[in-house]
Amino acid sequence: MGYPDRPGWLRYIQRTPFSDGVLYGSPTFESVGKPTIIEITAYNRRTFETARHNLVINIMSGEDFPLPYQAEFFIKNMNVEEILASEILGDFLGAVKNVWQPDRLNAINITSALDRGGRVPLPINDMKEGVYVMVGADVPFSSCLREVENPQNQLRCSQEMEPAISCDKKFRAQFHIDWCKISLVDKTKQVLITQELMRGEGILPDAGEYKPPSETLKTRDYYIDFLITLAVPSAVALVLFAILAYIMCCRREGMEKRNMQTPE
Asked: Given this model, what pLDDT does residue 91 score?
């Protein structure tokens, strides 16, 4: 409330006017601890009856429950609103938990492939846009997830071939994972580079006395420059005109030769 649009991190999607609308997104650090109030207004298209509701989103800090190991999956056979359904997302997290075996596992971010530069699929064979799902856990990646990093699978991905992943069958029944697009991030190995703050006295160094330009500037005469600008092109034009006139009027031997060779 009080703003002309939703927060930048909050997305909204509704495929058709008759389908359910979905709000989703991952809040930024600036939004932590601040309640976000979304004013929802709906109206009945037949009776024009209007209803209004305020949705309060309380954003809590995740520092108390760190998830340093994060994996992002690309699901090819889903749209973003389909994976956001609680039962579908629960099934996906259950499949990931089955191959990862963490103590804590949460979905961190969900993004449509269109927001990553993907193309709108053709309306044939029930093709889907695809969706990226990032999950975080408290234990290192399992050997199955690490299989995508071996040289053989990297070579297959470079040749646009499906890599051989042993645990793919645990997803295949419901989710088609593009294993070449999986991203594994270990935040425990990321080194933070900090710079020391050099606190000074707050006084700029003395660079001498400031001398502003004079207020009385000398006037400059541009008449000579103007004459030169006109005279030079005019002189060149006159020379060219004289050469052309000489060729056209004084060099006429060709006509006399033609007349002598032409029989009467």
From this structure: 92
